[in-house]
Amino acid sequence: ASLTTLTTIHHLITIKLTRDNYLLWKAQIVPYLEGQHLYGFPDGTTAPPSQTITVESNGETQVLLNLEFQHRHLQNQMILSAIISSFSEKILTHVVKCTTSRSVWQALERMFTSQSWARTM
Q1: pTM of the predicted model, to two decimals?
Q2: Nearest-5° Cα angle at 66, 99 to 78
Q3: Angle at 94 between CA 93 and CA 100, to 5 degrees
Q4: Is the Cβ–Cβ distance between 22 and 116 less than 8 Å?
Q5: Which of 25, 53, 68, 114 could cross-link to 17 by cystine, CB 3.0-4.6 Å?
Q6: What is the rounded CA–CA span in Å between residue 90 and residue 74?
Q7: What's the pLDDT score for residue 14?
Q8: 46: three-class secondary structure by DSSP
């Protein structure tokens, strides 16, 4: 997905995540990310590639930065930015130290899953 595609999230995700609307918020964001083929980043099914690759050339072994890792890291940062832009300030304070979309997703699941189920019941 391109940056242009991800910026449309502001128009599509109309509910800001608060302490009281996790299930509604999630019902908006998951189909959006799945539709962009990006849900694997926050849900953990898209494993990050190795940061480096080993290349042999003319009998010498070199360890190089993996360009795929760089690309995926940038993509993950765009997803992270898009997700946290849909948070209220109170929620943002709980995930401020998270550095990947996966870590934010895990923090949200810890914060809301049992709480949401209790409310639903």
Answers
A1: 0.79
A2: 35
A3: 105
A4: yes
A5: 25
A6: 26
A7: 79
A8: coil
Which pair of tokens denotes residue 79? 């997803």
The C-alpha atoms of residue 21 and residue 113 are separated, in whole angstroms, by 11
Task: Find, among 101, 111, 108, the residue nearest to 81 by Cα.
Answer: 101
Residues making up the chain, counted from first to last? 121
Question: Tokens representing 40?
Answer: 């694997």
Query: Which tokens go with 73?
Result: 């890291």
Beta carbons of 91 and 17 less than 8 angstroms apart = yes
Question: For residue 104, what are its two tokens?
Answer: 């934010």
Average model confidence (pLDDT) across the chain: 87
Interhelix angle 101-120/22-35, rounded to 10 degrees, is 140
**Residues near 97 by beta carbon (within 8 Å), at least 6 away in sequence:** none
SS3 21: coil
The letter for the amino acid at 41 is F
